[in-house]
Amino acid sequence: MNKITKKTLQDLEFATVLQQVSDLCITSLGKQASLDIVPLSDKEELMKVLSYVNEYRASFDNENRIPNHDFDDISEDIKMLHIENSHLEVSSFRKIASISDTSNTLIKFFKKFEEYYGSLYQRASEIPVTKEIIEETARVIDRFGEIKDDASEALFSIRKQINSVRGKIGQSFNSALGRYNSADYLDEIRETVIDNKRVLAVKAMHRKKVKGAIMGSSKTGSIVYIEPEATLQHSRELNNLQYEEKEEITRILKALTNFIRPHIELLVQYVTFLTDIDIIAAKAKYAEELNAILPAISEDKTLFLRDAYHPLLYLTNKRSGQTTYPQTIELHSENRIIVISGPNAGGKSITLKTIGLLQLMLQSGMLVPVHERSAMCLFDKILTDIGDNQSIENHLSTYSYRLKNMNSFLKKCNNKTLFLIDEFGTGSDPELGGALAEAFLEVFYEREAFGVITTHYANLKLLANELPHMTNANMQFNSRTLEPVFKLVLGEAGSSFTFEVAQKNGIPYSLVNKAKKKIERGKVRFDATIAKLQKQRNQMEKTSKQLKDEETKAREENERLETLNQKIKTKLENYQELFDHNQRMIYLGNKINDIAERYFKDKKKRPLISEFLRIVETENSKRKKVTAKEFKEKKQKKAEVIKEVTKEIAVVRKEKKEKKKKEAKQPPKPRPVLKVGDRVRMLEGKAVGSIDSIEKDKAVVNYGIFTTNVNVNQLELVEAKK
């Protein structure tokens, strides 16, 4: 794969993606290096990087989280190591030891979990694990960043002497302090520290009485600071020892620097490795934000983006809580070029940029936000012409610039090229510009290049309809509201809705109609036909969606009824089993009752026992031998059935109780006054009769075949006598 031009990277806003990845890096070198990412030209190297990022992305979802890779930049320290007779400072050694430790930890981790991180292990295994730097640094420098006493025998001896001299200084100073304080030569503060030395605070009037070196005085001159003569000699000795200590530390640091100097190449490897890991981790975090995946990489030229999102638009809308519409598009050997048409602000340009930016991201070793069933291929060149390309510096108009760009396309275009052109052919006379654009498109087609263009030109739509490996597509538009739907539909051209949009924006109908008359009738009819087809497609899609929804509802209802039927069937089986069990218990109870009665009468035990054993043996012969586990399960099942039945009975009783309470709360309905001749029936009865006579709350009701005396309160009116 050849290098992709800066113009393509600029047109597709690739620098913004790199900046977002850079922000996710945790090291200064990683942040800087991520801004310099470019599409990889070596396919093998690209596949490695993609697998690194994919494995790191997977680590976020499992328990084997990859250890921290943070480190401090040691570029300046490595430069210093290249200078002969130079030595590093303690802070530099600590950074170098930390980088060595971090690298070793990661290398060991990837080796331990090679099964999960195979590609990352292969990358880590290129670097040797060595503890020499860490151990030698730890031998000389402690965890607080100080040179250890036992870093060398000489340093140990010097520091031992320093501690001894400091002890003598303290002892002699305390002696002088006590002596002069008792003589009342000292001020209230008694002592202070000047130049890291303890000094006596002597009253100015007594300064000549105190032997020693004057180190200064107070602002008012009332106090003179004197180092006692007794400590002076020890202080000089201490200064000499501290100088020797400094010289010995320099010698130790030089020795440590010389020890590390042969490992410069290893340190460079460590820095490169950790920087790579930082960029890989940042790409993985970016993929997590985008819900991005590694699609299948096809060997043949197949680009199938299903539910693809524009990364920058997706993140912007995600942060503001807005919806981002995905697009589905497919390019392959039988459908190499797609011509997208339709009104402005419908999403044509963003679809174009989505395809190009996702291709750039993939070829730069990044995961892309597409459906898992998507497939992508690799292109040697990605050529773009997107946006207003006026060049003020070169005094070129939009059209001149575009022609220059098309000339460049003609030189580079082949069967391993992906070209993306927005508003193809615009910038000149529509008739002439459209004809030239058609000629360019035919050349791209003949060279078997892959590409997507957006246009309003009818001749390009017709060309896409005529050539076998070129397809029309349109961005759906709601013909009623004239609002974009942001959905790409392959297979048919789109109407520009020029006159419809004009009317919606308040342009008088008479003016629109006048404009229609000024152009060829065939063009108006052509555009109207396309608009009608789009409208029909929209209607068909709505109908299809409605049918699918109804089918889903019917399937769900069917599943619900099947589940309910199964539950009812299970309940019936359980009830039947319970009923059979109870019937058997009643039968056995009756038999035992009969035996008990006979025994009560004749008091004969032998027949009693014999009959009882016979019943037991008969019952046991019907039983199947079961294990303790099966018996326990059967018992548990039976208990569950009883519990369920009891629960349902309790629910029914509760409902009846509540119903009675409601009926009791409701005021009684006024009873009608019954008269002779009224047609009535008994409460909760069905037979209807007529009243023959009423006397003292008793009514004689005639049912035709017979008559009966009934209390009036037990009758309800069916029909009053007319």
Write a structural description:
The protein is of the alpha/beta class. The protein has four domains: 6-149 and 259-293, MutS, DNA mismatch repair protein, Chain A, domain 3 (Orthogonal Bundle); 150-243; 303-518, Rossmann fold; 679-719. Helix content is 55%, strand content 15%. The chain contains 21 helices and 19 strands. The strands form five sheets. A six-stranded mixed sheet has the order 10-11-12-8-13-14, sandwiched between helices. A five-stranded antiparallel sheet has the order 18-17-16-15-19, with no helix packed on it. α2 (14-23) packs antiparallel against α3 (28-34), α3 (28-34) crosses α11 and α6 (90-112) crosses α11. Mean pLDDT is 83; it is low at 390-395.
Which structural traits does this protein have?
4 domains; extended; MutS, DNA mismatch repair protein, Chain A, domain 3; five-stranded antiparallel β-sheet; 722 residues; 19 strands; single chain
Q: Any idea how many domains?
A: 4
Strand tally, please? 19
**Amino- and carboxy-terminal Cα gap:** 104 Å
Mean pLDDT: 83
- Count of DSSP H/I helices: 21
- Strand sequence of the main sheet, in spatial order? 10-11-12-8-13-14
| Fraction of residues in H or I helices | 40-55%
Please give the largest β-sheet: 6 strands, mixed
Strand fraction equals 5-15%
CATH fold group of the largest domain = Rossmann fold
Helix/strand-derived category reads alpha/beta
CATH superfamily of the largest domain: P-loop containing nucleotide triphosphate hydrolases
CATH class of the largest domain: Alpha Beta
CATH architecture of the largest domain: 3-Layer(aba) Sandwich
| Approximate shape | extended
Cα-atom radius of gyration:
49 Å
Low-confidence runs (pLDDT<50, min 5 residues)? 390-395
